[in-house]
Amino acid sequence: MEYDAVIGLEVHVQLNTQSKIFCSCSTQFGAQANTQVCPVCLGLPGVLPVLNKEVLRKAIQAGLSLNCKIAAYSKFDRKNYFYPDLPKAYQISQYDKPICYDGFIEIATSEGIKKIGITRLHMEEDAGKNIHSEDSDYKVSYVDFNRTGVPLIEIVSEPDINTPDEAYQYLQNLRSILKYIEVSDCNMEEGSLRCDVNVSLKPKGSTTFGQKVEIKNLNSFRSVKLALEYEIERQKKMLLQNEKIVQETRLWDADRNITFSMRSKEEAHDYRYFPEPDLPPIEISQEFIEQLKKELPELPHQKRIRFMQQYGLPEYDAQVLTSTRQLASYYEAVVADGAQPKKASNWIMSEVLAKIDDPETIDSFIVKPKDLAILLKRIDDATISGKIAKTVFEEMLETGKNPDTIINEKGLRQVTDTGAIESIIDEVIKNNPKSVEDYKNGKDKALKFLIGQVMKESKGKANPQMVNDILIKKLSN
């Protein structure tokens, strides 16, 4: 029996507003515990929440970027459940009237472009954070309410994902889009992006879904991929042995690379939703939506297509260069300063990215776009060779000087004087008679050796093409 996996993802994304969703408390990460709270986010009696307009703007812009429809009318609801880090014993969320719905993200598969549907995108408030003592003799838990009320959008996919690789790519594309439009930093280590997975198996070709299992505690995209790979195999083995898959929530153990049961969910959880009485419904005009649409930047897939068309780049180059908004801007600045598009692409992907840990930090890179452009132009105008350019680049990294200054100070200008090059070649031919004879006997390696000797004698400054042409001419005579 063969099985198909059916995967759905629920992604919670913290919006990068300066204040919380229903009060003016700061959202800054890393503050001392319980210092960024007030009666509103603590849910004390007699207070009223007020919607942060910037949260609404960012949620709608996220929805537009994910090809969602924007609801002209939506509302908030109370999602009732008790947990120590939820001070009101309910969460203000959106239930049946989300702000955005019916969207999609495109991913690349071996069979072509695939659309992964997005069921809904809604706004809600985050909960606090439980902190558990690691002292075995003093078992106690604390609650930090700083995160309570931080604005979230929850993005729920359709069950259109069928492999762990597709889930991984969906998440990568989702994060890239959200970072491009600057609604979140999507930092999983700080909890700005969190993901839960639902997965079930069904017989190949069947239209009936199997019993789904939820997986939590996934703190990286790699963990999502590994957890899905493990869980699909676990369920497959159980089905082949006629064992029943139970509806449950499982956790991912990254140390052992396994999922394990957290709690059974035999019955769907009843959150007793009802409309939030303290917040009015939200009515959105088409004019407001159009305004937000105009404010959106060029999205990753749009920029990738433009790079291929405008600069003649291969798809791979365009994919790498548009992976972050900052890297794409750096590349375009280099080209705008006169560098050849393909050469700029090659140097950024090979030399520049090798020197930085994160492409998002390239704005602070010591080699500025105009200086990299000058360096590449000096290769094109034969001032220096490609090999010498790498030496100059290393000096730029160490000193921050521009390439022309380094070339002049170090005396690195390429030798293009025919007489000077001929003189060096004559000396090399005289001192390497065996290699000359080997070349005349058809051994190609001998020519490479002789060229290497000429470059060595010129300290790498002789024009390589001139060396090649003059040397072959002299050897042929």
Briefly, what is this?
Helix content is 39%, strand content 20%. It is α+β, with helices and mostly antiparallel strands. It folds into three domains: 3-287, no CATH class; 298-410, no CATH class; 418-476, Arc Repressor Mutant, subunit A, CATH 1.10.10.
Present the secondary structure layout.
Blueprint: E1 3-14, H1 53-65, E2 69-70, E3 73-74, E4 77-80, E5 90-93, E6 100-109, E7 112-125, E8 129-132, E9 141-144, E10 151-157, H2 164-180, E11 193-203, E12 213-218, H3 221-240, E13 248-253, E14 258-264, E15 274-275, E16 282-283, H4 286-295, H5 300-311, H6 315-321, H7 325-336, H8 341-352, H9 369-380, H10 386-399, H11 403-410, H12 418-431, H13 433-440, H14 444-457, H15 464-476
Parallel strand pairs: 12-13
Antiparallel strand pairs: 1-10, 1-11, 2-6, 3-16, 4-5, 4-15, 6-7, 7-10, 8-9, 11-12, 13-14
Helix pairs in contact: 2-3, 5-6, 7-9, 9-10, 12-14, 12-15, 13-14, 14-15
Characterization of the model:
This protein has 15 helices and 16 strands. It has 477 residues and is α+β, with helices and mostly antiparallel strands. The chain has three domains: 285 residues, no CATH class; 113 residues, no CATH class; 59 residues, Orthogonal Bundle (Arc Repressor Mutant, subunit A). The N and C termini lie far apart (74 Å). The strands form four sheets. It has a nine-stranded mixed sheet. Helix 9 runs antiparallel to helix 10 and helix 13 runs antiparallel to helix 14.
